[in-house]
């Protein structure tokens, strides 16, 4: 009977092993090691932008479009210049944009002149606008509004005496 008992014990153990192997849960595959995973896609770099750094008024501009002697007080027969200093966020990029100068006589609420320039900006630059009136500007308070792509970015007040 010992042989029978041993055979039964072995048979039960073998059947139990087969049953355990057949009931084993499937496991999710292990994640790939970090070195093998594709890097997360990065967002696109922002498009280069234009900034207006300063607006300088004067009665003369040099060949570099800069105002040599800034002033906010003008004589009636002066030509009045507004030099607009700009910078692009990427100095190597050409960035299209439109600068507009709107000149107004504050005392009468009249627009004296408005001019737009469509430009390709690159790095640092200066764009000059000018107005003149051969028979002389009326005395009073004036302003020039500078817009970039339709948005006012600077207002400068000046006076004609």
Question: Would you kindly provide a written description of the structure presented here, covering whatever features stand out?
Answer:
The relative contact order is 0.18. This protein has a domain at 50-160: Macroglobulin (MG2) domain (Immunoglobulin-like), CATH 2.60.40.1930. Mean pLDDT is 83; it is low at 17-28 and 30-38. The radius of gyration is 39 Å and the shape is elongated. The chain has one helix at residues 2-22; strands spanning 50-58, 73-74, 80-88, 95-105, 110-121, 124-131, 140-148, 151-160. The protein has a five-stranded mixed sheet, with no helix packed on it. A three-stranded antiparallel sheet has the order 1-3-6, with no helix packed on it. The chain is mainly beta and 161 residues long.
Side by side, the strands of the main sheet go 2-8-7-4-5
User: What is the level 1 CATH name of the domain at 50-160?
Assistant: Mainly Beta
Distance between the termini: 131 Å
The number of strands is: 8
The structural class is: mainly beta
Q: In the CATH scheme, what's the topology name of the domain at 50-160? A: Immunoglobulin-like
| Poorly predicted tracts of residues | 17-28, 30-38
Question: Can you name the CATH architecture of the domain at 50-160?
Answer: Sandwich
Number of helices: 1
Binned strand content = 35-45%
Main beta sheet: 5 strands, mixed
> Which sequence of SSEs, written as H and E, runs from N to C?
HEEEEEEEE
Relevant CATH superfamily of the domain at 50-160: Macroglobulin (MG2) domain
Shape: elongated
Radius of gyration, CA atoms, in whole angstroms: 39 Å
- What is the overall pLDDT average? 83
The percent range for helix content is: 10-25%
């Amino acid at each position: 009977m010992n042989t029978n008992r041993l055979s039964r014990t072995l048979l039960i153990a073998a059947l139990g092993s087969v049953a355990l192997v057949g009931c084993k849960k499937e496991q999710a595959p292990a994640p790939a090691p970090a070195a093998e995973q594709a890097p997360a896609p990065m967002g696109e770099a922002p498009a280069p932008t234009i900034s207006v750094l300063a607006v300088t008024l004067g009665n003369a501009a040099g060949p570099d479009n800069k105002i040599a002697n800034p002033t906010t007080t003008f004589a009636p027969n002066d030509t009045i210049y507004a030099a607009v200093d700009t910078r692009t966020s990427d100095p190597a990029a050409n960035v299209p944009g439109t600068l507009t100068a709107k000149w107004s006589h504050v005392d009468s609420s009249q627009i004296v002149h408005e001019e737009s320039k469509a430009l390709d900006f690159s790095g640092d630059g200066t764009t000059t606008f000018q107005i003149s009136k051969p028979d002389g500007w009326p005395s009073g308070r004036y302003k020039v509004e500078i817009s970039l792509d339709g948005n006012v970015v600077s207002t400068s007040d000046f006076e004609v005496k």
